Amino acid sequence: MKKRLQAVLFAFALTSTSAILHAEGSIDAGKEKAALCFSCHGENGNSVVSTFPKLAQQNTSYLIKQLQAYKNGARKNAMMSAVVTHLSDEDMSDIAAYFSDQEISANQLPLEDDEDDNAKTVKDLISQGIDLYRNGDLPREVSACIACHGPFGEGNKPASFPSIKSQHAEYLIQTLKDFKSGARSNNPENMMHMIAKKMTDEEIKAVSYHISMKK
Fold it and tell me: Can you list the domains of the chain with their CATH numbers?
């Protein structure tokens, strides 16, 4: 099982550029079209609300894939579905090009959990997250994030694996929990569910904290 999981991850990580091809969009046109996104995601793609994802510096192929998923119903969100209803493929490419061209902002260190005296410190959680990100936990079949998202969290554009560096920790935590529960499943072979379902809530928090501090 471990070897099969590693093989699947390796195959996806090395997906050729011919597998996913999107026409390069126009940054200038994208800025105008992306105006409908600014209220939630920020004019420069850096949302100020931590439950809304940052889109700045995101891989264009991933952004396009998610917009298409909202439009065809593969990814469920009433607000996003309404926004993308009238977007053409060209619109999606232009919007993706604009946000991809923006620089992602750095995050502040997450706050300590004062309500739980037994909780690990933020620094301890980040250290735990570093190990999980780099090495995973193979005995429990928790794969290393680095395999698909890269050493710096930059993702894999040809394979449409997202850039996750400097993303809001709160958004990352919720996303991993959604993959874990099956609430979100629009990823190749449901790979993220296979990984997240074996992670504890503490591990999800730890790796999310680490990713949120990557720049």
Answer: 2-15+107-213 (1.10.760.10), 27-100 (1.10.760.10)
